[in-house]
């Protein structure tokens, strides 16, 4: 199978190397930015790749929605299989690409967009064909896991943990998408689409790790708890999709707590299979490239679909899930939340709420923050 | 795809239910023991199934090498795809079945034979096509993990842990294959065949959990260590395959230590992908059935091969791996092992050896036991 690659950055270089080394795969032309075509195998035009009848598949590792969407659509229309690592693209335009692939009878796979080397979407797609997927979740952002693990293990504060992650290349110069939870949210959107044939596109509840302090972490440790940023997704009995990202406090003996540094852990529960946990490197040149090349092998074996052509966009409804929440807020704001337990910590109040719907808790905290209160919260794992 | 099932025991019933519920699959005739064909869908002859041209695939969940081997060979010769959960069969006759399947151009998959619901062999086969697999391992026997976890958490002794596992249906009346490590060994044999195209068939090093006492576990706990029965497999730089089973002492924060009760954890390290860990239920009606039905879906998508037709039998050579070993033995036998650390515990000696080749350590302990000494040992994770 001859494969052209769109993009020659960190992941693109890894994909090209792995294609050249893999039995049964051959590297075709590689699309680079205008002016960067300094070698014969590099071209600057998608048309050249689409017109090359010897190319069987196209890998997109450029990032961003455009021009990635236009380029990959063109490749699919030209009858090429498509593989991408681009979660922003699939979250925004996955259903259109899935329909186009189905019309053309070619493959469209995107394992590397969710969990890097962790074979999450691949296994989820296969499991969902014969088992009912009861729930999805896990740690799907390595940057924030690295930062939380550093804060937990060395007692460093949020700013130092972020600077350390940036120095090691685990966090971007602008870390917003990671620390806000948006990156993890896009991944659980894709997992819901694969498991339930429904891509949640609005109605999300999103809380990242920006509010956690070294003092908070010290409090959790004293209680034997570990903080992790988790995603959750699923389908309620009446067909409503939920999908949210928020910090969780977990027992130190939980599998999530054993996920260290920048590793990812994806989890699904099948009605028959039970809980399946998948752990590995969620990012990086070769881990991500390995997922891209696995998808190419999978297409060579005959697989075509990860997101069905019938996949529809829906609004998430996170009112179907409830949690008790650990919360730290100004003592003066105590009445804003129904607290089952509370203790004073100077001018701060630390406590645990009664069970609250995820939507309710996120709305209450938003209102508190708009009134100027600094609030941290994390769901308690029951 | 119409599927006939050979065997209607615990797993067989689950497979039949899942086939009937799955889109795209249809249940054909089911082979039962002579005299048990009390319903029209049950037959007692493999010939009847092989002669049925409407049957596309045959699932074997009878267990044992014969008549399973003769029956599955007959099905393959009749041009049916074959899926099995039978590790004894694949360990003994996998290469012959793989050759026959390749000759006939049909599928032969056996995910359920290794790790139950854990999608180990499936992902390993896919990864091995484009990545070099540097090492294999994990916890591949749920019975012994359940027993060790019980001993660790409640302080119970070996006999009580075994009786509890038997009462809960996690251990057989004759638990030898589980507690000796033989069951786990068969699974790492299959994983080596999938990853390296070489099925190790002799030269194994095998130590189970029969020698561990409640006093041993108390000692480990005082040092913050957790005991697990692990498999290891891999290929040395010069192409020698190693495959062994032995207890390991691990840090309480290790991923292996977080695998509780009767769960399994499979692990592989890809040169590009890095470490991938897969955790789930290693046995039970529906978890095992889910793996069988996943293989059927995989065949429907076009996959044919998990073990290649070129797979050759080799002797394992475990002299390529070395460990430091924790050991408990009669104080009078202290000179039988090169000890880097030691402490007296009444008439017993507890210590840690210098690094020793796996083969060397297993041979030394065998000699000690033959001379009547009671010895426990476990590798120390470095």
Can you describe this structure?
Two copies of one chain form a homodimer. Chain A is 36% helix and 28% strand. In chain A, strands 7, 9, 10, 11, 12, 13, 15, 16, 17, 18 and 19 form an eleven-stranded mixed β-sheet that branches. The mean pLDDT of chain A is 96. Chain A has a domain at 321-380: 2-Layer Sandwich (Alpha-Beta Plaits). With 382 residues, chain A is of the alpha/beta class. Chain A has helices spanning 10-21, 46-51, 68-77, 87-104, 120-130, 142-154, 158-167, 176-179, 182-196, 214-222, 285-301, 358-370; strands spanning 2-6, 26-31, 42-43, 57-60, 81-84, 108-109, 133-139, 198-202, 205-206, 225-235, 241-251, 263-270, 274-281, 312-315, 322-330, 339-345, 348-353, 356-357, 376-380. The longest helix of chain A is centred in the first third of the chain and has 18 residues, at 87-104. Chain A has twelve helices and 19 strands. Chain A is globular, with a radius of gyration of 22 Å. At the A-B interface, helix 1, helix 5, strand 13 and helix 11 of A face helix 1, helix 5, strand 13 and helix 11 of B.
Secondary structure topology:
Two copies of one chain form a homodimer.
Chain A: E1 2-6, H1 10-21, E2 26-31, E3 42-43, H2 46-51, E4 57-60, H3 68-77, E5 81-84, H4 87-104, E6 108-109, H5 120-130, E7 133-139, H6 142-154, H7 158-167, H8 176-179, H9 182-196, E8 198-202, E9 205-206, H10 214-222, E10 225-235, E11 241-251, E12 263-270, E13 274-281, H11 285-301, E14 312-315, E15 322-330, E16 339-345, E17 348-353, E18 356-357, H12 358-370, E19 376-380
Parallel strand pairs in A: 1-2, 1-4, 2-3, 4-5, 5-6, 8-14, 9-11, 11-19
Antiparallel strand pairs in A: 7-10, 7-12, 10-11, 12-13, 15-17, 15-18, 15-19, 16-17
